[in-house]
Amino acid sequence: MKRALILSGGGARGAYQAGVLRYLEEIQFKPDIICGTSVGAITATAMGCGMNAAEITKLWKSIEAKKVMRYSIWNDLVDIFVKSYSPLTDTTPLKNLLYSYLDFRKLRKNPTEIIITAVNILTAELVFFRNKEIDIEHVMASSAIPMFFPWQYVDGRPHWDGGVMANTPILPVLERGATDIVVVLLSPVGGVDMGLPKTRREGLERAFELSLIGSYQTVMSNLNFEKKRKRGKNPSSLLSYPFRARPGPN
Question: What architecture is the 3-240 domain classified under in CATH?
Fold first, then answer.
């Protein structure tokens, strides 16, 4: 039986994943494949570098907005007067922090397959990076939230957060024959009143959150459709497929 762990994106909720990892360690769930996107890519890479749940918890506690992400008022002014694209946040401190924690030499030697995703901005292609090639640039590319973070160049090509197209990257593990799959979903899916955004920044955050939810719903609908088709059942009921969620941690 091949086991897989899917780590989705979800803004600043990466610390929640560390709590799930502690539980998986307790029940001795050891995945053969770990696939992550956005904040999930950071956690997946950390696991591939040999970090345990306690060490990953320490990493996420270090990732506080005031320490690793600098909001750029200057970029807002540039947008007003020059009308050119500029992200809201400088992620150089985050990049430096991650580089100090992640040992990519261990990642390349790890027999567990690590896969992280990103989107090629120019071609609109979803791309997958694996152990042998993953470096700090790939991690930053997979977690480069559009509008908030600057895009990240990988091999001369600009990339954005993989969650834009595949926030729950489950298909790669299915292609590899995984049958025991754990999905850690960070974005609330239906049934939760999140309130209206009050600022432009909150509006952008909500729009991105909705794209993450839509990505998850599309994948799960397709999987459910295929499951029903193989069982010879009428898949039309998928049009009203119920999605439920519990509030995520703040």
Answer: 3-Layer(aba) Sandwich (3.40)
